[in-house]
């Protein structure tokens, strides 16, 4: 959808919402009926917003849990790889140490 079409659609929806609100306020109903309509609309809007927030919170929680699990798996893999590399380094250092001991023993003779 182009930006111009989006602007037109937004303007139409805004106009419809304002028109509906003005229609309720200027309708030939008694004040009590008008207040009931406004209250009913406000309660419905509040419920819709609360439901949307609950849904968004649930989705965010699911997403956060998935990201946490993914992070923990990557951390475990990284630590495992580092452990193997540390073992390789220790083996290499032990071999170098043994070589140095042998050379030192030969020099001491």
Question: How would you summarize this macromolecular structure in one to three sentences?
Answer:
This is YtxH domain-containing protein. With 109 residues, the protein is mostly helical. It has two helices and no strands.
Secondary-structure topology with pairs:
Elements: H1 3-26, H2 31-108
Describe this structure in words.
The structure is a single chain. The chain is an all-alpha fold and 109 residues long. The chain contains two helices and no strands. It has helices at 3-26, 31-108. The termini are far apart. It holds the Pfam family YtxH. The chain crosses the membrane at residues 6-27. It comes from [Muricauda] lutisoli. Keywords: Membrane, Transmembrane, Transmembrane helix.
Distance between the termini: 88 Å
The radius of gyration is 36 Å
H-E order = HH
Structural class: mainly alpha
Number of strands: 0
- Mean pLDDT across all amino acids: 82
Multimeric state: single chain
Q: Number of helical segments?
A: 2
